[in-house]
Write a structure and sequence with these properties.
With 404 residues, this protein is mainly alpha-helical. It has 2 domains: 104 residues, DNA polymerase, domain 1, CATH 1.10.150; 195 residues, Intergrase catalytic core (hpI Integrase, Chain A). A 3-stranded antiparallel sheet has the order 1-2-3. It has a 3-stranded antiparallel sheet with strand order 4-5-8. A hairpin with a 2-residue loop joins strand 1 and strand 2. Helix 5 crosses helix 7.
């Protein structure tokens, strides 16, 4: 039987009521969908709490997957088919693919993580990300951006960080031929009028005074010699070391004994706080750097290295790095004892930077020491006045005495 004869036979059977071709076609399409999903979907499908459920890959989530639930199995299979066949292209489905691409482009593991923070804050809860890419218009995006700016009182930096996702993800969609043009490229925002001007934070909340540092030193040395029930006995000295080196807390916990060379330490890695992963390159665009060790920092290292240990980590007696949260918790507790406002480990870094500038050390040397690629970052965000009100009064008196 040739194809023409087969077709006539089917038409005859349908007209005589023997078979229903539309029903057969529907069943065939359903079977094709199920076969397609079996080949492309790596997760189980199950029924629970009145809904059919499964996982799909999602780079933006810590567990790298997202739960999908539908009222019927057919609805779930239909969703999965559109998802894998690329028929349901939205910002939500595009984002994990674009973020994976962004990771390939980035030298730092932290930059895509920072992008993910903005995604979870601004985009993930929004209905905009479930609109089909082909239906996005410049006006729709502009109205959404304006609402976000007002809702979160965005500064210029916060806005630029947030907008990267729209701008670059939609450019990526164009390159994938999912849309013809990027509608966000036509959006016009009056940033000068709408964005909030950032106010520099109060000096007293960002840096430690000399008196506070001296008090911190006394407490840390005493705690290191009387650890009590403290599990991480080197935590007080690790916290103190930040004042003498200006390290980020992840760089501090990532230090190994092999990084110490005479009166220098070399910053070669950091420990990511979120998952304790050791990243074998520094958190800085300027690359590897060294930090000058002073008499105070060498004294700390001497005391630290006297402790028995089972690994190469400077501030851990164990074969794993000291957790960053331990140092941060120690800072919070010690600030409370001192009687100052709560200041984070990053405030010790700002204190270190401000001290170097106050001492007249060249800005380029300071920039390299703290690992900044641009001195404007150093001066704008890390230099604060550490003088007490009484000391400031004396400084004004001396400056305005007009003696020759």
């Amino acid at each position: 039987m040739n194809n023409r004869e087969a077709l006539k036979l089917l038409q005859f059977l349908e007209s005589s009521g023997k078979i229903d071709l539309s029903d057969a076609k529907e069943k065939m399409e359903k079977q094709n969908i199920e076969n397609f999903i079996k080949e492309n979907h790596p997760y189980d499908i199950w029924f629970g709490s009145g809904r059919w459920k499964t996982w799909i890959f999602d780079e933006s989530r810590p567990e790298k997957r997202r739960l999908i639930a539908k009222v019927s199995k057919d609805k779930l299979l239909e969703y999965l088919y559109r998802h894998y066949a690329g028929e349901e292209n939205t910002l939500r489905t595009l984002y994990p693919k674009w973020l994976s691409y962004k990771r390939l482009q980035s030298a730092s593991d932290l930059y895509p993580d920072r992008i993910n923070v903005d995604w979870n804050r601004f985009y993930a809860p929004s209905k905009l990300v479930d609109v089909a890419l082909v239906d996005l218009t410049p006006l729709m995006l502009e109205e959404w951006v304006l609402r976000i700016i007002k809702q979160y009182s965005l500064t210029k930096t916060a806005y630029n960080n947030m907008a990267i996702i729209l701008r670059q993800a939609l450019d990526y969609a164009v390159r994938l031929h999912l849309i013809e043009t990027n509608p966000f490229r036509e959006v016009r925002i009056d940033t000068k009028r709408l964005l909030v001007r950032p106010q520099k934070k109060e000096d007293k909340d960002q840096v430690f005074t000399d008196e506070e540092v001296h008090h911190f030193e006394s407490i840390a040395w005493n705690d290191s010699q009387n650890p009590g029930k403290r599990v991480y006995t080197l935590a007080p000295l690790a916290a103190l070391f930040l004042f003498y080196t200006g390290l980020r807390v992840g760089e501090l916990t990532g230090l190994k004994i092999s990084d110490i060379h005479a009166d220098q330490i070399y910053i070669r890695r950091f420990v990511r706080r979120e998952d304790h992963k050791v990243i074998e390159h520094p958190k800085t665009e300027s690359g590897y750097r060294s930090v000058q060790l002073t008499e105070n920092s060498l004294k700390v290292l001497e005391a630290v290295l006297e402790h028995p240990r089972s690994g190469d980590w400077v501030f851990s007696e164990y074969n794993t790095p000291l957790p960053s949260r331990i140092v941060e918790e120690y800072f919070a507790k010690t600030c409370s004892i001192i009687g100052t406002t709560h200041k984070s480990t990053h405030c010790a870094r700002k204190t270190f930077t401000s001290c170097l500038i106050d001492s007249g050390i060249n800005i380029n040397t300071v920039r390299k020491t703290v690992g900044h690629s641009d001195e404007r970052t150093t001066l704008k965000n890390y230099v604060y006045d550490r003088a007490t009100p009484a000391k400031k009064k004396l400084q004004f008196e001396a400056a305005l005495s007009y003696h020759s």
